[in-house]
Amino acid sequence: MKKICIALDTSPSAEKIATLGYEYAKALKAEVVLVHAVNDAALYAMDYDPIMGYNGFLIQNNIEFVEGLEVEAGKFLEATAKFLGEPDLQTKVLDGEADYEILEFIKEWEADLLVIGTHSHNVLENVLMGNTAVKLVRHSKILLLVVPVKE
């Protein structure tokens, strides 16, 4: 194994997932990338109504808000790299549905192993769509290290 992708969310369990994934990478002398998906960032916009969609046109404040989410995700990944003792560790913020974007990224990056956690942020999301971990397990073409974490 030469390339390991560690997919993180911003939950407290991210520390455990990152640490375990990084320990595997060091033991295998593998290249590592930390990734975080900003899942449908436009849905966080103030003009978004979950039933009807957008109430109006995307205004500048909403665009700046979405860009801010991506910036904060980048800072989160950089802080995680520093926590792991590797401030220059490769990081990547993905924009879109987490499962789809992660699957696309590991294919393009030619990862050999994907490290993920087992939980979701939202019970309703799990019921309606299944959680990201389940989708990744079902559709990944590479090996997975699934780290069990408490919700």
UniProtKB/TrEMBL annotation:
Domain UspA as annotated: residue spans: 1-148
Signal peptide boundaries: none
Cellular localisation: Cytoplasm
CDD domains listed in its UniProt record: USP-like
Coarse class of the protein's main subcellular location: cytoplasm
InterPro entries noted in UniProt: Rossmann-like_a/b/a_fold, Universal_stress_UspA, UspA
Pfam families to which the protein is assigned, alphabetical: Usp
Coiled-coil ranges (or none): none
Keywords (A to Z) from UniProt: Cytoplasm
GO cellular component: cytoplasm
Family statement: Belongs to the universal stress protein A family.
Protein name: Universal stress protein
Record organism: Bizionia arctica
Phylogenetic classification of the source organism: Bacteria, Pseudomonadati, Bacteroidota, Flavobacteriia, Flavobacteriales
UniProt gene name: uspA1
